[in-house]
Amino acid sequence: MVGQIAIPTGNVLPGQAVGTATARASNGMIAARLERLPMTQFQRNIFLIIATAWFFDSIDLGSLTFLLGSIKTEFGLTTAQAGLLSSMSFVGMFLGAGISGMLADRFGRKVVFQVSMIFWGLGSVWCAYAPDATTLGYARLLLGFGMGMEFPVALAIVSEFLPTANRGRYLAIMEGFWPLGFIAAGCLSYVLLSYFDWRAVFLAQAVPALFLFAIRFLVPESPRWLADRGRYEEADRVMGCIEAKVSERLNGRSLPEPQPLPEQARGERRFSFLELWSPGYASRTVMIWLTWFFALLGFYGLTTWLGALLQEAGYSVTKSVVYTILISLAGVPGFITSAILVERWGRKPTAVLMLLGSAVAAYLYGHSPSFEWLIAFGLMMQFFLFGMWSVLYAYTPELYPTRARATGAGCASAVGRVGSLIGPYIIGIILPSLGHGGVFALGAGSFVIAALSVAVLGIETKGQSLEAISR
């Protein structure tokens, strides 16, 4: 089947022999061959595998929202100590995201993704058997490291396999697995806490790490990355297999001929982190770092404490879990709306809308006059928050070239994890003096700053191939 797929000779680079692997697998040609593929179940299966791993990650991270109150009680922690414990995950995520992006740009997307799942699986088991708060903090650090490793690599894989017409929508939908995972974490916590303690929840969350075998055997290495590294024969072989599988799902119909796309020069290659600060990319880096930092400072500063704040308001552990799950349900229409708008309006206006909406909703939530309004504004807040996540994950990997895509996404995520680290700890400190209103006003201000960063410095990437955006 692979041999039946014609590669037009008009797209061969000057000086290259027609029919050679180099001609068929230059970075521009590989991109063209990927872009011309119709969307079939083959690409959807790759997306579903990565999104499922994303879903399991969300369960691991979101569980602390539902377990923090119980952990705080068992170990006799102050609010500041509980906030510090919450922040340990984000220290690990900061390290994992920053390192894995550079590793993925150097050694490949697939291997780094698999290693990330091993780390967070081991971290979950360690959490389950932690004898004290200090040990639990170190376990959360390891768990966060694995989760941080996964984020930028998952974004790179999905963005590099899907054609332009589908890329933004599917990246936004993938983020939708995050609120689903958050809801699943709440359901899992609700069920297990009815019979066991919080340790059983962490132990159950270690099992999905076995999903790495699906990654190993069912997800190929990114041909865009292989071509960019000069591994032309391998890129051509992987690309041929992809073309054959897509053609098979089209009942053997001929594939469209690839249209030439810009080549990304390999002669100017530099260390991937320095690439983020080269001409044309520095302003993008400043913009996306500011956006991630303030968006995550607000998001995790608020959501990590949702369950604990409800408990402090007088609700039982199980009732606070139920109310938090209820509020999180609004995240589902939130990410669906974002997935639609990123392709209709564009990434930039959708990001501004979701961030400003999050700011307004967070402020109103913190100043709710009654329990009914608390739930209403909580639903509104989660709608915009998860819509915000969707557009950020769709937007970030599009800003950088293949040679630095995972590094760019990883460093933005790492900077965001600094905000994630600071947010819960700040909340633990200011809550006793400023109360719930001050906490949510702080979150609202963070979202406004993030929205301004996108509005002033952001570029629009809708409808453009990755190569056209980053030359």
Topology:
Elements: H1 21-24, H2 27-35, H3 41-75, H4 79-107, H5 109-128, H6 133-161, H7 164-193, H8 198-206, H9 212-218, H10 223-228, H11 232-249, H12 272-275, H13 282-303, H14 306-312, H15 317-328, H16 331-344, H17 347-366, H18 371-395, H19 405-457, H20 466-469
Membrane topology: Multi-pass membrane protein
Domain Major facilitator superfamily (MFS) profile: 46-462
GO cellular component, one term: plasma membrane
Task: Give an account of the 3D structure.
The two termini are 33 Å apart. Helices cover 76% and strands 0% of the residues. The radius of gyration is 22 Å and the shape is globular. It is built from 20 helices and no strands. With 471 residues, the chain is mainly α. The longest helix has 53 residues, at 405-457. α3 (41-75) packs parallel to α14 (306-312), α6 (133-161) packs across α19 (405-457) and α16 (331-344) packs antiparallel against α17 (347-366).
